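[Meeting: bench + compute handoff]

Bench side (C.D.) handed over the final construct sequence. Compute side (W.E.) agreed to return the predicted structure before the next meeting so the bench team could plan truncations. Sequence as handed over:
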Amino acid sequence: MNRSVLRGIVLIIGVLAVIAALFILPSSKSKKKQNPPNSDPWVLVSYDPDNPYGTYLGNGFISTRIMGDGVGNQKGKPLPCYMAGLYHNEKLIPMPTWSDLRFNDGFINGREFRIDKTEPYKQTLNLKTGVLTTQAVWRHKDKLLRGNIDVIVSRARPSVALMLHRSS
């Protein structure tokens, strides 16, 4: 057999072996952290603090959008809140943002605490109660703030909304 034919056959066999190894051997990227299953059909759960869409809460009178960090701001900018009947030139206009809660280190021009993505995170929306709960760890350097932020826009009292932070 000719040497060039033999080299071609060896090359093809080598390429096929590499392709087979890529399909057979498990990749390290496929070992993703498994989150526990949600057993309550009335609760929506997110384990992604980087969700770019957030959760929209409203009661027909007032509303807000809450992002993955549990508050109404995105990349440091407050998100608009709306109220029924608040118009200018026949366009719905935003009202002052009430859901922009921020934590800082206590110094003037201090640094804000940000969600620590290496720590456990969970955001749930209870469809029965309308409460959006964000469980996370916020970090600034060596300081930690561990807890929950609950947000509700009341259906019973249309002009009432609440943000509650509970440290654990």
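W.E. noted at the follow-up: The mean pLDDT is 85. C.D. will use this when planning the next construct.
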